[in-house]
Each structure stands twice: as structure tokens, then as C-alpha cells.
Write a structure and sequence with these properties.
Helix content: 25-40%
Radius of gyration: 21 Å
Number of strands: 16
Number of helices: 15
Bound molecules: zinc ion
Shape: globular
Strand order of the largest sheet: 3-2-1-4-13-14-15-16
Length: about 450
């Protein structure tokens, strides 16, 4: 199906060009023509059009914790206890309703592809559902209803810590028992999704805490042979580093490296507390790092060394992770602004580099290398930021400041239009496929809190 867009401004990789014609056929961009008048019948996109945004690290069900866990005392570990309570209440139907609303919120924020780090596989007590991938199927339907592309990162989770303590009742829902059982379930999911054009399967090692070395090696081997993206939570907490040193005499990064988990297919999520040697290993492996700064600050984790990562050529991606907020502009600027607070200096990462993290590099990290660019051959995923709000008024008068104005001042609420594979998902700030997203969210959250009460 052919469609032509005419954008007031479009990001072509290093600058915004005015009056860009974007021709699309069968979901791909077939021509990009800057400085051209609008052809007859073109769909006009007023404002600044970017490639679709990639949310490289999400746990959809954490959306239920927003507002409930963000105030007061506590740390990552007390937050995790609350998160487990919500996980305990989910079944495939409730999960689909919550994830549909959450992914629809993402679409409204300009996100066109989401990587869901999925470990809530089984029923209460660890009993598999009749379809052992029922929860993954809920996420696939949710993403399809919400109009966003999905990478389901099927996550291996086997133990509650280095000491092989037994899994608690919620954690039993995460575990397949061993890596072979996990691999068999993943194989089933991959063949079930073989013909899907908007959903892909990747793999994940939950963390060095939750997976023993032989099992993480099995995930690395599968990712290498099947060319799947592999994600892993890495060094979000100093407690994890300490426990890993105590158990193995190595940092988590060293352990992953020695067991074949670090490669060009790998994205390390967080990498907040990494040493110079760890960074060398991530760079040498060709790994990307996904930073989730709004979550990392909410959980009092710390600040990841994004400037050094960028200097070493490590591609950066961004994730909304705990859904404290869903706003990739906020994630993008937080990467740079947190580093400024640490170094008391400005300007490690340019607006252009932060936009690349939100688009092209994020899409690559989640296994959609054809997305994230406005270029011939790329997937026709577009997001338009309105330039007439109080936040961005005046920015368009000087095209040179537009990238910085958007990265440092725009919010998710400035997104007016979202196109996925050439088809409208959001128009004039309204979701085209899901009506009344706030009400969907409210209802999905209410049914979970009723169970809790
Ligand atoms: Zn996470």
C-alpha cells in the first residue's frame, strides 16, 4: 500500500530538513525528497518528524507500580518486593489488558518499537499454562492492538541468588527449571511467531544473580547461532557486583565475557556500576548499553558512565524500564544531564547523539536494524513532534537549534503523530487504534488493585 507524507521538518540523520516528501510502499520508505512542495494527496505532518522511537527496555507490568512506589524511603530491593506483589496477580487475560494500555501509552509517546524483557512465564506456583507461552502471546496481542512493534526478549531466570537459595513463590513463575527447558519453550515461541511481521523473538539472561554460568553460556550460544538479540541486566546495583565477586572472584561483566554472553548481539541493560576493565570488555565485544535513567534515579541506583561509553564507541539505547515515566525525550536528556551533575561539566553527548540513541541505535539493539532512520529502504516508522506548544514555540525559526530544543525541552505530550510501517497509529495526539487510552490504563490498574485490597 503506497502512501506519501509531506513533513514540515524531517530528521535525515544529522539535521532537520524542511519540506520533506517521504514516499512509502509496503511499509518501507522508497524515496526521501527534501525541499519539495507537497504532492497531491500527500499526508501532511506539521512539526518535526523523527524516525520512530525505540524503547529498548520495558517491563510492561511495572506500569502498575507508578505512583505507588516512588515516594518515601526504600531502595531497589524494597521496590522489588512491591513489584513481585503485582506480578503475583497477573494471568494472561489481565496481563494483556494492562500491557495493551501500557503499550498504547508508549505509542502516544512516539515509541514505535518496544523490547519487552519478559520473565513472567508461568502460572502461580510455576505451573506452565496450557500454552507455555501464553504470557508472551498476551504481550504480542497487546503490542499488535496498540500498534507498536515488539521484540519479546524471552528471559532465562533460574535462581534467586548466587547461593542457590530456593525460589520464592513469585519467582517460581519466572523459572523454566533449567536452560534446556527454557530453550525448548523459546523454540516453540520462535516457530509460533515465524510469520509475524511486527513481533520478533530475542533472548535474555535475567542477571548474573538469577542464572548460573553454564546456563548463561547456553543463552549466549543460542543468540550466536540463531542471530538473536541478547539482553542482560548488568551491574545496576553495587550489591550485585559484591555478591558476584564473593561467589566468583569476578565482576558480572567478566563473568558474562568468560561465558560467551558478550558479543555484537548483546545489549547490557543499566551498566551503572562498571569498571574501566568492564567497559573495555563491553567495547571489545561490540556490545550496546541500554540506559534507563528515569528508573535508575527513581530506584537510587546511581549514574552510569555514559560519556565514557560513548567515547569508547559503545552504542547507547534507552529504556523506560520500570515505567516511572514513559517519555524517551526525558530518558535521552537525562543521560546527558545526570553526567553533567556527576562531572560538573557540560556537553559529553550532543543532541544528535542522544537522538541516535532514541532511534537508530535503540532499534538496532532490539533487533530491528531496518528501523530508526528516515532513509530509503528503512521501515516507515515516523513520529512527529508538534512545534507550537509553549515548550517548543520559536524553535523552528532556527533549524540549527531544533535538535537540541527537542531533546532538552520536548515531552511525550508533544508527540502529535505516529506512523508504523506507513500506517497511522496516532493522529493529532489521539490513538487511532485504541480509544481512550487513559481509561484503559485506569481500568487495568483498578482490577489489579482490587485484588490487592
Ligand atoms: Zn529491567
Amino acid at each position: 500500500v503506497a502512501v506519501t507524507f509531506h513533513t514540515e521538518w524531517a530528521w535525515t540523520g544529522d539535521r532537520f530538513e524542511p519540506d520533506v516528501v517521504i514516499e512509502v510502499d509496503l511499509g518501507r520508505i522508497t524515496r526521501v525528497g527534501p525541499g519539495e512542495p507537497a504532492p497531491d494527496g500527500a499526508v501532511h505532518l506539521s512539526g518535526a518528524t523523527l524516525p520512530g522511537l525505540a524503547n529498548a527496555h520495558s517491563h510492561a507490568f511495572h506500569r502498575a507500580l507508578r505512583g505507588r512506589t516512588h515516594a518515601g524511603a526504600g531502595d531497589f530491593w524494597s521496590w522489588r518486593a512491591q513489584m513481585y506483589r503485582v506480578a503475583g496477580h497477573l494471568d494472561p487475560e489481565r496481563y494483556e489488558r494492562l500491557a495493551t494500555a501500557c503499550f498504547a501509552e508508549m505509542a502516544l509517546a512516539g515509541i514505535t518499537v518496544v523490547a519487552e524483557f519478559h520473565y513472567l512465564h508461568h502460572g502461580p506456583g510455576g505451573e506452565p499454562y496450557d500454552d507455555p507461552n501464553a504470557m508472551a502471546e498476551s504481550l504480542r496481542s497487546a503490542a499488535a492492538t496498540a500498534g507498536v512493534r515488539l521484540t519479546l526478549l524471552d528471559t532465562l531466570y533460574l535462581r534467586s541468588g548466587f547461593d542457590d537459595a530456593p525460589l520464592d513463590s513469585v519467582q517460581q513463575r519466572f523459572s523454566d527449571g533449567d536452560a534446556d527447558e527454557w530453550a525448548a519453550r523459546v523454540e516453540g515461541l520462535r516457530s509460533a511467531w515465524d510469520g509475524e511481521d511486527r513481533a520478533r523473538v530475542g533472548v535474555a539472561v535475567h542477571s548474573v544473580r538469577a542464572v548460573d554460568v553454564d546456563s548463561m553460556a547456553a543463552v549466549g550460544a543460542l543468540a550466536t547461532s540463531a542471530r538473536l538479540p541478547l539482553h542482560v541486566h548488568l551491574s545496576e546495583q553495587t550489591a550485585e557486583n559484591d555478591a558476584c565477586q564473593f561467589a566468583h572472584g569476578r565482576s558480572p561483566t567478566e563473568l558474562l565475557d568468560e561465558h560467551g554472553v558478550l558479543g555484537p548481539f548483546t545489549t547490557a541493560v543499566h551498566a551503572t556500576h562498571v569498571s574501566a576493565d568492564d567497559l573495555d570488555r563491553l567495547a571489545a565485544g561490540g556490545c550496546a548499553v541500554c540506559l534507563c535513567p528515569t528508573t535508575e534515579r527513581d530506584l537510587a541506583d546511581g549514574v552510569g558512565p555514559a560519556w565514557v561509553m560513548a567515547e569508547q564507541g559503545i552504542p547507547l539505547a534507552l529504556g523506560s524500564d520500570s515505567q516511572a515515566v514513559i517519555d524517551l525525550f526525558e530518558e535521552a536528556r537525562a543521560v546527558e544531564l545526570h553526567e553533567r551533575l556527576v562531572h560538573r561539566e557540560r556537553g559529553g553527548l550532543s543532541a544528535e547523539a542522544l537522538l541516535a540513541a532514541a532511534t537508530e541505535d535503540g532499534a538496532e539493539a532490539v533487533g530491528w536494524p531496518e528501523a530508526g532512520r528516515i532513509a530509503v529502504g528503512a521501515a516507515a516508522d515516523l513520529v512527529t513532534v508538534g512545534l507550537d506548544s509553549v515548550r517548543l514555540a520559536g524553535a523552528a525559526d532556527d533549524a540549527a537549534i531544533l535538535p537540541a530544543a527537542i531533546v532538552f525541552s520536548a515531552t511525550a505530550a508533544d508527540v502529535t503523530d505516529v506512523i508504523v510501517a506507513g500506517e497511522p497509529v496516532v493522529r493529532d495526539g489521539r490513538h487511532v487504534l485504541v480509544d481512550d487510552v487513559p481509561e484503559r490504563l485506569r481500568a487495568a490498574l483498578a482490577e489489579l488493585s482490587e485484588i490487592d485490597a
